[in-house]
Each structure stands twice: as structure tokens, then as C-alpha cells.
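Methods — Computational structure assignment.
A single polypeptide chain was analysed. Its primary sequence is given first, followed by the predicted tertiary structure written as C-alpha cells.
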Amino acid sequence: MSTDLNMEYQEVKFGEIAKHISKRVEPSETTLDVYVGLEHLDPDSLKITRHGVPSDVAGQKLLVKKGQIIFGKRRAYQRKVAVSDWDCICSAHAMVLEAIPGKILPEFLPFFMQSNQFMERAVEISEGSLSPTIKWKILEQQIFKIPTIDGQKIILEIYQKLDVILNFSFDALNKLKKLLNSWFGNFYEKTTAPIRDLSSCIKNNPQYGAPEKGEEYDDTKYRYIRITDITDLGTLSNDDLKGVSKSISLDYLLKKDDFLFARSGNTVGKTLLYTEDFGECIFAGYLIKVTPNPEVLLPEYLDVFTKSNYYWDWVEATARGGAQPNINAQQIAKLTLKVPNIEEQKIVVGQYKSLFNIGSELSKKIENLIRFKKQII
């Protein structure tokens, strides 16, 4: 942990600063109005900007009181921590926590849980391969180095000011997404373009990614693109670079116009259009690659379509339920969309990009703010 602020630090067990709350409730029996699933939590944001209702779900969930922390204990690498603004119920794949005053300020705990120190340890102690999960009895024993109360007060003041900026930025980004959806929806409703299966618009069959574990990235490796590297806006994050050995099969090496679909978990459906600006990249196993035939379907038009409500309605209807919703290669091949002629696709892409670029710049600024926030502790 950095001591650039010349603060005093203390070592604590997590169980000394946080209490695990495990009160279970049946959605059909609760009088509460709000359900928060892991899909409703944004990585690196303490603010919950969307939610469902208890009637959306079945099976026992966790009771959450206003001000308590919801932490995604499954797939902790997604960095999902939030503070509830309501009494509600939440996914059983989360932990509900509250601070134990004494060694930590209650307001400081959620910010600490966003730090690299905490998140890296959370990933380290997660158990399981397909859906790595944290057990409380392991987490509560973990020892962390945190500032003393006086230091926490200084950092908390900085964090709270940063969070005001971040919340405004996230709000602006969400409004821009709605504007983009509205604009594309207006075009898509009016066009008389033919409806085609994606399989008729791509060069090869959809391909699953490499079954490799990412390593620290350097110039001797290919960059490894994982689900977590794809932002909600469909851009590539540079926040946590990973690499894989260049001895890997070149079948997984991305080329111009390759297009990626996230096939599993809470990120199912996220997409990314590869460009050569990314450098030499390998795509990971929880991604599926297709390569559009540019004489029929511009990769950029497919990118625009997969940011629309039409695509996300298809994802919701197609992803299999259960503990880990997913979409397979055969289902992606059967995805249908309206495909105008190439000239009309170019017009759509050009007009969309003028708005999207604003969102992309805003997304980068948010990423930089989050990076700075992580580096404070």
C-alpha cells in the first residue's frame, strides 16, 4: 500500500472492520419493492442506478437495509461493490456487509473495498473455476493494511469529492446511451431492409476463445482480451492489462474486423469490435468471435446494432437461465437483424459515431478517475 500521504497505518482482519449480514427472504413473501441483482451493479461504482422488483426472481434472496454494502462475492474480478439507497432484497450471489466502528469509519469501508488491495485479495481467495466465489469464513480472516482513523478522514474527503464527479459522469453516460438507443431505434423501425441470420453475413462459423489464464502483460506477450476488458459502452479498457505467451495457437489471434461476443455470466451479451489499434491480441475463452463479410455486413454496423435495445432484448430472451446465463455459438449464428445495403449501413455508422465518440471520451475520463481513485490507497 502506498504511503505517499505520510499517514500512519494499522493492520486489521477484515472481520474486525466488517460484519456479514445473512438474513434470507423469499421474494414472494416480501413487502419490499426493490430487487438488486449483480447485473444491476456497475463495476467500480458505489451508486446503484438500476434495479428490478422481487417478482422478477424466485428462490431465497438476501435482505438489505438502507446504507448496507452489497458486494458481488461471485466473480469478484468484476469489482462490484455498492451501497444500497433502500431497504431491499439482493442476489444470494452477493454478500451484505456493514462496517464495525472502531478501527474504520463506516463511510470509509465501501471505498476501501474498491481498492486494488482489497479486490486483488478477493480474487486470490475465490474458490471454483467456472464461477469463482468467496466464502465469508475465509474473507473475514484476511489481514489488510489500512490508514488509521485520522488518515481515513483525509482520504474519505478526497473520495467523496471524486464520487460526486463520477456520479455526474455516469449519469451523463447513461443519458447518452439512451439517446443513442432512441436515435438508432427510430432508424431501425422505419427501415425496410431485409432480416437476415448472422450466419449468412459472416465469413466463418463463430469461434470460442482460448482456454488460457492471463499473466502480467509485457512486450514479449500477446495482449489477452477478457470479458472484464470490455466496457459497458463496448470499448476496450486499458485498466488491467493481461497477456499470454506468443507460443499460443494463432487461431486465437484477432484480425481486423473480428467481432467479439461475451457468452457467459453477468456480462453475457457485451460486444467488442477489434481494431488494429489494440495491437496483437488473443481473445479469451468466455468470448466468441465472428468475422462479418464486409460485402454484406459492415463490422461497424454490427457494432451499432449490438448496442441497441433490439439486440439486448434478444440477449435477454436467449441467454439460458440458472446460476450462470450464457449464449452459445449456435445461438449467435441464429441472431437476426435488419441488414440494409452497404451504402445505407455506412450512413448509419457515420451518424452514430458522431454521438458515440462523445460517450467514448466520457468513458475514458471515467476510467481515468477510477484509476486515480484506486491509487489513493
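Note: The first strand starts at residue 9 and ends at 13.
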